[in-house]
Amino acid sequence: MAAAAAWMEPSLDVDKLSYEIFSILESKFLFGYDDPKLFSPSTPATPSSAGLHPSSAGKVRILSIDAADGILAGAFLVRLEASLRKQSGDPLARIADFFDIAAGSGTGGILAAILFTRGPDGRPLLSAAEALRLLAKHRRRLAFGAQRKGILSGILCRSGGLFRKVFGEATLRDTLKPVLIPCYDMATGAPFVFSRADAAEADGYDFLMEEVCAATCADPAAGAAAVEMRSVDGRTRIRAIGGALAMGNPTVAAITHVLNNRQEFPAAGGVEDLLVVSLGGAEAPTAPRKPSAPLSAAELARIAGIAQADVVDQAVAMAFGESRGTNYIRIQGYGAAARTTAAADEALTERGVESVLFKGRRLSERTNGEKLDAFAAELIKEDERRKRSNATTVVIKPTMTPSRSSSSTFTTMASTVTSASL
């Protein structure tokens, strides 16, 4: 630390402003996470004086959903959508109306796909409540349908499969807003992120939504085989397993995508230009065990997933600093995973767990429901600001070639997703 500070002392090579910015970031990272005086107006080198003030063009709104308990995340989204409808006065408002990008992994990826895929009327395919009912009805199929090798694709995809019934021939290009859905590609030995931005540019990055969802929720721990899939032009081949292994908490991926995609998000220069809500799952308490007993593969995977999600949460909260209570919120349950919608609804009245830099974890001061209601108010403020302003905040990238989906396909999708068969 001393060496780094000495190296960064003002000199002919490092101007004073750069030194001040470095000092702020260094102090904030190590000592100032909870220090309200660090960026007070009396501080000489404030973010505004260093040119780090929020953009006048507004804030990019990001939704991130963990590869965790889909029922719980679905309940959070239902509450958020209901709050958006009530506060905006629009009874038909949908989640996708108030977000500019969605990232989801595992069952979170399924939720993101359902809520942001275009329906036959040009609106989101399903509401949050409809998406939750779908997940609740088919929870066992999604969680346990892959316990025998190779059965996942037959149950969820292909002709008559669940995802085929929901999405039809829709591809990544058919999402209303940018989406990011990760998996792990066994062919290359690296994470792969399905992205609408990439799909809009080339067929080689465009994939059927049914296969994207099957890929991100393929769980080897449950005995699932890798999902063999190809892009719509057949040029890109992926051998995918679940996104939970590659990126259980996709929040950082979404933030990085926005800050490095000036074509679609020209006004986003830093985290001060973002509004982010990250939805996690419930952390089931560890069962009593002998201290000397070895951990099973499932236990190790669970611990790794929880740790990864917490590390991401801590890093993002640290980056947002004092605005982490307004511009960034993390919602997750505390206790056993929600197996019913009633249990998930109960989690809304509980105070969730928050990660604190270098201090472990603590219970939030507000309930999960209260935090979602407050964040809904921030989303509506941004929406109203855009209606009054001519500044460009988001420019959705158009597709370079026509979508594969047709009106007849969407008509089939509409009748399917509203039928009792789902």
TrEMBL record:
One GO MF term: hydrolase activity
Name this polypeptide is given: Patatin-like protein 3
Region annotation Disordered: where it falls in the sequence: 399-422
Family: Belongs to the patatin family.
PNPLA domain sequence ranges: 65-255
Keywords, alphabetical: Hydrolase, Lipid degradation, Lipid metabolism
Keyword set includes Lipid metabolism: yes
Species this chain originates from: Canna indica (Indian-shot)
